[in-house]
Amino acid sequence: MITRMRLISVVLVAIGIVCVAVSSADAAPWGTVPVQSDVAGCRGEYGALENVSCAVALTQRWLSHTGRSSVVQETVRVTNPAAGVSWSPENRDVCVYAELGAVIALGLHHCNKVTFYNPTSDAELIRTRSRAVTTLVHESSHGVQESVGLRPVSATITALAFGRTAEIRTMELASDCWSGAAWTWFIGQGHLSVADRSEAITFMYSLPDRPTHGTGQERGRAFERGIVEGVAACNQILGRPAYT
Ligand SMILES: [Zn+2]
Q1: Ligand 1 center to residue 172 CA distance, Å?
Q2: pTM value?
């Protein structure tokens, strides 16, 4: 969850002090640990680490199914302290991550083909399998958006700095829709159950209102549109054909 002060601090720290280039496709960014993909973590309720490994595995399968395997190169756990910045040539946008003491926690987000999370600041988002799967598939949507030239990070900065939230909110709600569409497929494939999905729906409606992401009601509705209507609805929400 990125606040304006945190964002400004992060940009200063990331650019001024660390300035680590993470554009290499081969190495995990400095201060991060790659998460192993493991579908075995989906077979029960274990712990947060297994939930994330399950979510990475199912996200990969969904991306493969939709022909989008390349949009998430890796998912990494950000240690503390850690920070860095990179430049994505694909969509010409900056990408930052940071966990610095108790002061800065950018937490779960995706940019430049990497999904970042921190087990402490994101504890509520990965507490159950359903939550972890829902949130990590959502993040992969930002990878799809990057692949068609959209700039979720710049749109977030614009929203936080100038209050112009429409662009990023559209991208966030489309991502909630994408996650819902994935859930229908996960159930069809036997990876998760209808009861798991009910938990995910409740989770989406319970999310706090945020100018950049919309209200819990809006997010829950976008998620359910994805479940019922599939990825075509996500294109409608986004206002352009990105997902099909
Ligand atoms: Zn998002």
Answers
A1: 5
A2: 0.91
